[in-house]
Amino acid sequence: MIYLGLMSGTSVDAIDAVLARFTPSFDILARDSSPIAPDTRAAILALAEGDHDDLDALGTLDRHLGEQFADAANRLIEHSGIPRQQICAIGSHGQTVRHRPELGFTLQIGDPSRIAELTGIRTIADFRRRDVAAGGQGAPLVPAFHRDLFQTTSADRVIVNIGGMANLTSLPAGQPEAATGFDTGPGNVLLDAWMQHCQNRPCDLNGAWGASGQPNETLLAALLDEPFFRQPPPKSTGREMFHLNWLRTKLNGLGSTPAAADVQATLVELTARSIRDSILPLGLARPAVFVCGGGAHNSFLMQRLQALLPHSHVGSTAELGLDPDWVEAAAFAWLAWRTDQNLSGNLPAVTGAQGERVLGAIYPA
Ligand SMILES: Nc1ncnc2c1ncn2[C@@H]1O[C@H](COP(=O)(O)OP(=O)(O)OP(=O)(O)O)[C@@H](O)[C@H]1O
Ligand SMILES: [Mg+2]
Q1: How far apart are CA 167 and CA 206, in angstroms?
Q2: pTM for the whole thing?
Q3: From the alpha carbon of 8, which atom of ligand 1 is closest?
Q4: CB 204 less than 6 A from any atom of ligand 1
Q5: Rounded CA separation 12/96 (Å)
Q6: DSSP conformation class of 104
Q7: Same domain, 9 and 59
Q8: Do both 90 and 232 map to the same domain?
Q9: Domain containing residue 101
Q10: Which of 68, 172, 233, 323 is the most exposed, fewest CB within 10 Å of its CB?
């Protein structure tokens, strides 16, 4: 049972693809990361952060992303050497261009018909909308996969995915029904945006620039003074809320502007603090914390997280046998596998949906 998972997250940094086998045991057979064409990336950001709606832009981007997802899948299949016929289906997350559960919709694009057409492989996509239709947030969806893979009977664990946004999964030892999760707020998105704005580089490699600054307490308090952080779960968020202009508005509200590196240090602190403040109320004594997503490579952010959680071990999911870069794409291979077996993919305790649902729509080969 081999499934191909495709993930393109809120950071819009790359298309991640994995080939995963689920029976008899879970294994990642091959993985690959493909760049997103620069003009496609610009079009995604314009749609995801803009307050205007352009149907032609949406339609063409849907098509181009479908082609790039198919290319990513084909590239992975070719270099893996695994015969195409052995792949049961592709699970494609799609690119979120709008996430508005409060209005009853979430929109991921990257035409699955085109993926099926260009790969010749059955494609399962649009995983979030069924959960939203059932009254849920449609996000996060990865906690069910985290539970399946990482829950144990011996130790409380928290899995934290630090992508563009950050979300966590709480896995109390031996209590599968008590697993829960939610978005904690921004992950890397503001770090990337401020880096791009000030240094014209896409990411603060290993957090080096942030580490050179000092967090500004006044700014940190202003950033944390956002209702989302106080809202009880279920909750999810996206670029609609946390983007460069959100930061600018907060900066404009201060008497004086901190040095640029101090702003970066404050943003690292915001991500780390909002994660810590989400873990403490979970009621787990000394949970081991395992990070996945690109944030696991930001060593300064990882250090801050460990410092804020002195009673927990803070590591990456690599310690649990799954490279932090491939957890999300593997989750969408897993979700496709669940859909194929007519099994639910959401956790109602996480998304707030009325019940478990089989997720996704199937586009035949
Ligand atoms: N070496 C590194 N140092 C600092 N940051 C890094 C490093 N490697 C990756 N990152 C950060 O990780 C981000 C990408 O993470 P990831 O691919 O998990 O996020 P995503 O695609 O937005 O997924 P999600 O759907 O979870 O939001 C990059 O934009 C960058 O900010
Ligand atoms: Mg990514």
Answers
A1: 20
A2: 0.97
A3: 21
A4: yes
A5: 10
A6: T
A7: yes
A8: no
A9: 2-138+328-363
A10: 323
